User: Which sequence fits this backbone?
């Protein structure tokens, strides 16, 4: 397999059987999910699945964090343009299902802020590893749209309904250490050890019985497939929200770096 078509994702073979997928630039700032990055994150898992040389893929972020969430210019385009809204809805749907259905094992290594489309893949990974000081945030309701993406399909299963509702409704950030404590991620470690830990886990998985592990993954992910209708509804409601007034205030408050002042809900809602 060749991955030369990917531009925003940096993809390389670390060693036999192990592929590394990097969001952002080394030494740069936070990786923002531009329109291209969003599309690449949705499609790359299809290529990983078909890649005969890959047993395990490691997903990490370069620079100051794992992922910074969606580019505001792309978000604004979604609010204005139906075609853009439909395109990004399909990519968001495909991202979730393509990670779930990828037969190869996926390890994520999250540091710094972990938000948006990157967080989707990070939490859906088969083994999710976070730096203890990572900052995991689902910011949908702060933006003024329903918590779609991956939230409804996986947060209640990982950390329970009570914790899922609290963090998804309030958009309060979790440290990697707290995320491990409540079961949202598989492991937490010191940031300086994160890449080495991810590679250690990847090597262990790559050395294992591939058919047995892939069939185990397939079986376990049926829990997520059963939650598919709830996910589909949440994603539809998220994108319905992109046509409403709350997201306009959410975008404005982000641009102006202030607390939002959302309008009242429609009468009778």
Assistant:
């Amino acid at each position: 397999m060749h991955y030369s078509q990917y531009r925003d994702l940096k993809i390389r073979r670390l060693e036999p059987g192990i592929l590394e997928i990097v969001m952002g630039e080394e030494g740069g700032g936070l990786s923002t999910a531009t329109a291209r990055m969003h599309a690449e994150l949705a499609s790359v898992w299809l290529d990983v699945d078909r890649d005969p040389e890959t047993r395990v893929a490691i997903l990490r972020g370069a620079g100051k964090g794992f992922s910074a969430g969606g580019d505001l210019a792309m978000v604004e385009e979604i609010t204005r343009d139906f075609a853009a809204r439909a395109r990004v809805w399909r990519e968001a749907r495909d991202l979730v299902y393509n990670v779930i259905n990828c037969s190869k094992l996926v390890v994520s290594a999250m540091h710094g802020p972990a938000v948006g489309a990157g967080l989707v893949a990070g939490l859906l990974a088969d083994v999710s590893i976070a730096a203890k000081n990572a900052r995991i945030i689902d910011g949908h309701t702060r933006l003024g749209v329903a918590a779609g993406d991956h939230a409804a399909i996986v947060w209640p299963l990982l950390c329970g309904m009570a914790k899922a509702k609290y963090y998804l409704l309030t958009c309060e950030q979790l440290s990697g250490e707290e995320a491990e404590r409540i079961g949202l991620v598989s492991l937490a470690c010191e940031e300086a050890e994160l890449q080495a830990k991810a590679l250690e886990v990847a090597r262990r998985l790559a050395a294992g019985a591939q058919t047995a592990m892939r069939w185990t993954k397939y079986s376990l992910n049926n829990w997520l497939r059963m939650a598919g209708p709830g996910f589909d509804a949440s994603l539809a409601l998220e994108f319905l929200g992109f046509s409403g007034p709350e997201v306009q205030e959410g975008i404005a408050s982000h641009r102006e770096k202030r607390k939002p002042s959302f309008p009242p809900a429609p009468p009778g809602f």
The CA atoms of residues 49 and 262 lie 42 Å apart. The first strand starts at residue 9 and ends at 15.
